[in-house]
């Protein structure tokens, strides 16, 4: 929006605090290369447009706003003379993206001294070279420091996830190794038992019956019902008595295996009827090896399936083989993150999932949303641990008008009111030294707000802290592939 051009008076602009120390020659240059404009109530410039001018208010009232989730949120309203806004980083040239980082409008007829961005950059370099160097160092140094510590934050999260994943993988891997070693031993015994049977005085019909019983027993193992400890103990007693009555040694050792395989006294009676009495002990021993082999193979299958599931969850969490921006089911992302962090969450924290499975998928950057979930879950776990280590973490999803809500609720001590407004500030942390960088929530906020056009806020009382992420159901990807590092340039 353009205003009405008015005469520029060096004396008038010298009364503004930005220009009060300038020489008459400098004031004359400003008036000759700049201009005074009168703007009627309405917008002056819009966030995201090319930053072409630097504005200094002479008189009137300005309102600064930032765009959040498609809405313009007012951040500053002032009538103080001399406040400035616009192309404030023009002196950095093309080393940064030169766009307006907020929107400005006026509520009454307002006069500005307006300086084109290229002229502003030129006079800054000519008149204040040392200040420009200092400002450049401050600007880029701050960005580099924040990027380095942000990288450390991600590395710390990666280390935590790696430790948790290693712990989770270790249990099924160790179980598979143990089961494989035991299986090798059982197969060796089966070979010896098979040699003994082959050398014995058994008819072809008896061996055929034994093989048939073996096949039916193996099928029975796959369909074994789940028994309560009391039911299992009662069945073991019955089987032990039956084995003892039929002259089979060590029946008390065989009974638990048979019970685990779903066999009962009636089944053993069918086995006894199918083979001759003199080979019944050998047949029972052979079936015991068959059952143990099947159970061990089931254990190996379960262990390797769990390892595969963990690997799939790690891929889902990292999104290494997925498009960076796509439509996702947030529940899949939440589940993979919870699984990755299960080692850190521990057994003393109960995880409750209150998912609304009817929610539609949303367009998002899934790997970065997983980073948000990681930071929020990590904070919740730390809060619960600070209150004794036992508590509940509730992860809830719901539809909140036209947005998707993801809420993380913990039973920790809560966020003190005096720091509630600071927890999203860069480098602010309540964790002990060495345990936090103070960037987790800042990174999360920028991912949610800048990249997904959503909101992130907190509600907290002792015993009930809720971090709530609201995502638009039809968000548009941001122009940049990384979360914006820019801060609001407010009129001050």
TrEMBL record:
The record's InterPro entries line, in alphabetical order, gives:
cNMP-bd_dom, cNMP-bd_dom_sf, HATPase_C_sf, HATPase_dom, His_kinase_dom, RmlC-like_jellyroll, Sig_transdc_His_kin-like_C
Biological process according to GO: phosphorelay signal transduction system
Enzyme Commission number, as recorded:
2.7.13.3
Q: Histidine kinase domain: from which residue to which, for each copy?
A: 300-475
Name recorded for this polypeptide: histidine kinase
Q: Which SUPFAM superfamilies match?
A: ATPase domain of HSP90 chaperone/DNA topoisomerase II/histidine kinase (SSF55874), cAMP-binding domain-like (SSF51206)
Pfam families cross-referenced by the UniProt entry: HATPase_c
Cite the Cyclic nucleotide-binding domain residue spans from the record.
18-124
Keywords for this entry? Kinase, Transferase, Two-component regulatory system
What are the top taxonomic ranks of the organism? Bacteria, Bacillati, Actinomycetota, Actinomycetes, Kitasatosporales
Can you name one GO molecular function term for this protein?
protein histidine kinase activity
Catalyzes what?
ATP + protein L-histidine = ADP + protein N-phospho-L-histidine
């Amino acid at each position: 929006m353009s205003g009405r051009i008015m005469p520029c008076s060096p004396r008038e602009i010298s009364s503004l605090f930005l220009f009060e120390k300038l020489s008459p020659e400098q004031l004359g240059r400003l008036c000759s290369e700049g201009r005074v404009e009168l703007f009627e109530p309405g917008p002056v410039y819009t966030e995201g447009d090319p930053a072409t001018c630097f504005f200094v208010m002479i008189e009137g009232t300005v309102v600064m706003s930032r765009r959040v989730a498609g809405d313009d949120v007012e951040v500053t309203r002032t009538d103080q003379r001399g406040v400035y806004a616009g192309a404030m980083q023009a002196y950095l040239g093309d080393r940064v993206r030169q766009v307006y980082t907020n929107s400005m409008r006026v509520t009454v007829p307002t006069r500005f001294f307006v300086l084109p961005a290229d002229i502003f950059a030129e006079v800054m370099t000519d008149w204040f070279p040392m200040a420009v160097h200092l400002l450049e160092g401050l600007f880029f140094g701050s960005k580099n420091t924040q990027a380095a510590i942000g990288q450390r934050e991600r590395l710390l999260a990666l280390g935590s996830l790696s430790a948790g994943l290693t712990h989770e993988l270790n249990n099924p891997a160790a179980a598979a190794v143990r089961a494989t070693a035991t299986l090798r031993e059982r197969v060796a015994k089966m070979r010896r038992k098979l040699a003994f049977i082959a050398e014995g005085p058994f008819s072809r019909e008896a061996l055929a019956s034994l093989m048939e019983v073996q096949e039916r027993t193996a099928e029975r193992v796959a369909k074994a019902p789940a028994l309560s400890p009391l039911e299992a103990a009662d069945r073991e007693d019955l089987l032990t008595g039956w084995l003892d009555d039929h002259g089979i040694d060590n029946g008390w050792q065989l009974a638990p295996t048979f019970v685990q395989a779903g066999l009962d006294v009636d089944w053993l009676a069918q086995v006894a009827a199918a083979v001759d009495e003199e080979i019944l002990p050998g047949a029972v021993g052979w079936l015991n090896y068959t059952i143990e082999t099947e159970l061990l193979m089931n254990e190996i299958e379960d262990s390797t399936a769990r390892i595969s599931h963990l690997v799939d969850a790690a891929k889902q969490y990292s999104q290494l083989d997925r498009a960076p921006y796509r439509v996702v089911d947030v529940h899949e992302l939440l589940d993979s993150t919870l699984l990755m962090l299960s080692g850190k969450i521990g057994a003393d924290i109960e995880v409750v999932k209150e998912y609304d499975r009817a929610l539609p998928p949303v367009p998002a950057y899934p790997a970065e949303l997983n980073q948000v979930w990681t930071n929020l879950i990590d904070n919740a776990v730390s809060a619960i641990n600070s209150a004794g280590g036992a508590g509940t973490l509730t992860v809830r999803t719901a539809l909140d008008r036209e947005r998707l809500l993801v809420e993380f609720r913990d039973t920790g001590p809560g966020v003190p009111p005096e720091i509630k407004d600071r927890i999203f500030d860069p480098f602010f942390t309540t964790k002990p030294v060495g345990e936090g960088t103070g960037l987790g929530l800042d990174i999360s906020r920028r991912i949610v707000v800048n990249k997904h056009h959503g909101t992130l806020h907190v509600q907290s009382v002792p015993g009930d802290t809720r971090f709530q992420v609201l995502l638009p159901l039809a968000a548009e990807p941001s122009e940049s592939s990384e979360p914006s590092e820019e801060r609001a340039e407010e009129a001050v």
